[in-house]
Amino acid sequence: MFDPKIFLSELSAVIRNAVFSIGGTIKGRKVHGNSVNGDPQFGLDEVAEAAAIDFLRASGLHLALYAEEKGLEFIGGGSGSDGGRSPEFLLILDPIDGTRPAAAGLEMATISAALAPYSADATLADVQWAALREFKSGNLLFAAKDDPVVKADTLSNKRETRGMFWSFELSGHPTQWVSRCLGNLLDTTACAGGVFVFNSCSYSLSRIALGQMDAYVDIGNRLLRDYPESEKDFRRVGLGSILHLFPYDLAAALMIAKKSGVIVTDAYGQDLGETLLLSGDPLNQRSCIAACTQELHQEIMKNIVW
């Protein structure tokens, strides 16, 4: 009988082993092109995604895979629209979320995998099972939609921004726009608290659930929506593409964080559940504000200068 936890655990372990087998992270630093959504792809990404596809083809499962590098493909049969049977599952996979830290041999990277019933219109709210494997340590985090929301014992009880430990996003984000909005938060937390740039959404969200961080902020997509004139700057630092939070960045981490009691919304304070899983369009990309308590989430929202 199919066990989603075992399946996601084995998949993520295979990916991790394949990347470590290339004999060090330096070999994985060279950029070999861009993903279907425009994100630069490093050697590590290619090795990881190839290992995932080999594992999935050998599994005998009939599923749709949406992964960072190549986008949507069907494993084990037709798409349903071509006369074949429709896949049972949709697998949303980021083989390495945090490629740059991983390529530097640092901890700030995960293997992110989430399963939903297959639908061309599936959303984040449809995800049924989610797994994150810490790339360096190998530790596995797992959550299922049927699990109750239970505030993790590790979760911080921080309620004010002063002294908080938090991370924010800069990859593909023009620094001058981000600093105008986050300057107050940076100034009040850099010394008395801690400010980090991990450039991995899944790692950042999972650190809140584990009590290592109090909050995570990615305001990029709200800036683009509120200030369309910023697009030229986003494309300049994104090497021609808009690089905000894609569905595969959020699919697993969102469920794991929320099931642990973390407060997670977009930068407008709205639920992320309606985000389509199969679209990388800038209007389907997302922003994110996450915090260990509702009070801290509100304080962060109030202290961002829009």
Question: What are the main properties of this structure?
Answer:
9 helices, globular, about 300 residues, about 20% strand, alpha+beta, 5-stranded mixed sheet, D-Maltodextrin-Binding Protein, domain 2, Fructose-1,6-Bisphosphatase, Chain A, domain 1
Description:
By secondary structure, this protein is an alpha+beta fold. The chain folds into 2 domains: 4-144, Fructose-1,6-Bisphosphatase, subunit A, domain 1 (Fructose-1,6-Bisphosphatase, Chain A, domain 1), CATH 3.30.540; 165-303, 3-Layer(aba) Sandwich (D-Maltodextrin-Binding Protein, domain 2), CATH 3.40.190.80. Helix content is 33%, strand content 21%. The protein has 9 helices and 13 strands. The strands form 3 sheets. Strands 4-3-5-6-7-8 form a 6-stranded mixed β-sheet, with helices on both faces. A 5-stranded mixed β-sheet has the order 10-9-11-13-12, with helices on both faces. The protein starts with a helix and ends with a helix. The mean pLDDT is 91.
Describe the structure in brief:
The chain has 306 residues and is of the alpha+beta class.
The CATH superfamily of the largest domain turns out to be Fructose-1,6-Bisphosphatase, subunit A, domain 1
Q: How are the strands ordered across the major sheet? A: 4-3-5-6-7-8
What is the CATH topology of the largest domain?
Fructose-1,6-Bisphosphatase, Chain A, domain 1
Strand content: 15-25%
CATH secondary-structure class of the largest domain: Alpha Beta
Biggest β-sheet: count, sense, barrel? 6 strands, mixed
